[in-house]
Amino acid sequence: MRSVWLLLCLGLLALTLSQVRAEDPIANLDLEDIAEFDEDDEEYLTLLEEKSKNKDVERENELAQKLADVQYNLLNPVVEVDPCETMHCGAGRICQLNEGKPECICIPECPDELDTRRLVCTNKNETWPSDCAVYQQRCWCDNKDPGCRHPDNAHLHIDYYGACQEPRVCDGEDLKDFPRRMRDWLFNVMRDLAERDELTDHYMQMELEAETNNSRRWANAAVWKWCDLDGDTDRSVSRHELFPIRAPLVKLEHCIAPFLESCDSNKDHRITLVEWGACLELDAEDLKERCDDVQKAVPHLLG
Ligand SMILES: [Ca+2]
Ligand SMILES: [Ca+2]
């Protein structure tokens, strides 16, 4: 029995000593260190200090490395290149991978629109829930998808934003007065853009001329707007190119649609500068083509 107790006590002592050795820097010293301890206390303390300093440095290095790794991973995430990222699909289409290859498909679902401001009125005088729904429909009809409601919808486009309005008749008097109102409006828009410094130098010059010379007032504004609408610079304004002037105004100005219709006097679906001037009741003599093509052809030159 006594020998069992002795063994237990020895075991506990050994355990305690090994713990002390693990925690105590002195206990961690090698035998040589201990031998030197007897000879020179100061040297031993320096050594001790050095050892613990080295340990601190090691620990610091380790932490710094871990931190650097985390930062590197944050700044350089592993990015898988999505081939769809560089693919541009038109309105109503999205890019999808087909066996790893990107292709444009009709947008499968448009967001549910609850906001009535998102409603659009199409050229067929139908109200659609959103522009997305119109473009999706056009895509379906282009692709002969079962979702296509009518083959004509391949040419569906937005006439204006908002629900379709009961068409108000633009009667004789209103239409007669419209060219004057349109001229005024064009001049005011041009002046507004000049004040906001949003015209090119070329058109700024024309605006200044319109401000100072009464005979140039309407003509310069008319020429500027016509050039501005002619996006492809082919010197005629197509129906498509009329969209930016038609869409925002058609709800407010019930005469704009018949007015623009009347501008195309030879019914070839394009408005020349001569036709534009005539429907604005301007003297053909005053209308000289002065488009700032540089601005459209090489916009980067203007910074
Ligand atoms: Ca054009
Ligand atoms: Ca024409």
From TrEMBL:
A cellular component term, taken from the record's GO annotations: extracellular space
User: What keyword terms does UniProt attach to this protein?
Assistant: Calcium, Disulfide bond, Glycoprotein, Secreted, Signal
What CDD domains does the record point to? EFh_SPARC_like, FSL_SPARC
List, in alphabetical order, the GO biological process terms annotated in this UniProt record.
anterior Malpighian tubule development; basement membrane assembly; extracellular matrix constituent secretion; larval fat body development; larval feeding behavior; Malpighian tubule morphogenesis; mesoderm development; trachea development
Q: What is this protein called?
A: Uncharacterized protein
State its location(s). Secreted
Give every SPARC/Testican calcium-binding domain span: 169-279
Location of the Follistatin/Osteonectin EGF domain: 84-104
Could you state a single Gene Ontology molecular function term?
Answer: calcium ion binding
Q: Which domain of life is it from?
A: Eukaryota
Q: Which Gene3D superfamilies match?
A: 3.30.60.30, EF-hand
Signal peptide bounds: 1-22
